[in-house]
Specification:
Layout: H1 5-19, H2 37-40, E1 51-54, E2 60-65, E3 69-75, H3 81-96, E4 114-119, H4 120-125, H5 128-178, H6 186-189
Antiparallel strand pairs: 1-2, 2-3, 3-4
Helix pairs in contact: 1-5, 3-5
GO molecular function: actin filament binding
Family: Belongs to the ARPC4 family.
Keywords: Actin-binding, Cytoplasm, Cytoskeleton
């Protein structure tokens, strides 16, 4: 872990641990309803101040708390167009499988790449410190995954380009050696 990543993750861990003090709270508007207040936003007095923890302008975490739920939104570092594309595809892949992760939202908050919604029911079924550990390990691993995918993509592109240029130079060399004019046969174009 890099020297700048550790304090960032420690700040996220401490803030998330403090925000996860959630409890069961019925709706003040509709009887027998228990909706996540951070999503519904029906009563201002039930919402905590949102906290943004930023490592740099592209890498940040938004933690929004309420009396019965916490929403964690993560913006992942994307240095160039390839990383943006890989991050978008990977997050789409994860969102399609959101039902396998009980705390993942299908659609992230605007300006962020992925969001988690942790309700009081999640904290009753799972350990709070394990939920925090999951979010922190996700933040650690996602950068590694995208970097690995970028390296693999670059290696594959290099191999494809080498093969293409090798075949193109062989064809060009054959045509020079045989002095055959380049013509496209119409019989080859018919299906």
């Amino acid at each position: 872990m890099s020297a700048t990543l550790r304090p960032y993750l420690n700040a996220v861990r401490a803030t998330l641990t403090a925000a996860l003090c959630v409890q069961n709270f019925d709706s003040q508007v509709v009887e027998r309803h228990n909706k996540p207040e951070v999503e519904v936003r029906s009563s201002k007095e039930l919402l905590l101040n949102p906290v943004v923890i930023s490592r740099n302008e592209k890498e940040r975490v938004l933690i929004e708390g309420s009396v019965n739920s916490v929403r964690v939104s993560i913006a992942i570092k994307q240095a160039d167009e390839i990383e943006k594309l890989l991050c978008h595809k990977f997050m789409r892949f994860m969102a399609m499988r959101a039902e396998n992760f009980s705390i993942m939202r299908r659609k992230p908050i605007e300006g962020y790449d992925i969001s988690f919604l942790i309700t009081n029911f999640n904290t009753e079924q799972m350990y709070k410190h394990k939920l925090v550990d999951f979010v922190i390990s996700f933040m650690e691993e996602i950068d590694k995954e995208i970097s690995d995918m970028k390296l693999t993509l670059n290696a594959r592109a290099r191999i494809c380009a080498e093969e293409f240029l090798k075949k193109a130079s062989l064809i060009k060399q054959d045509k020079i050696n045989q002095r055959i004019p380049v013509k496209i046969s119409t019989s080859l174009l018919q299906f």
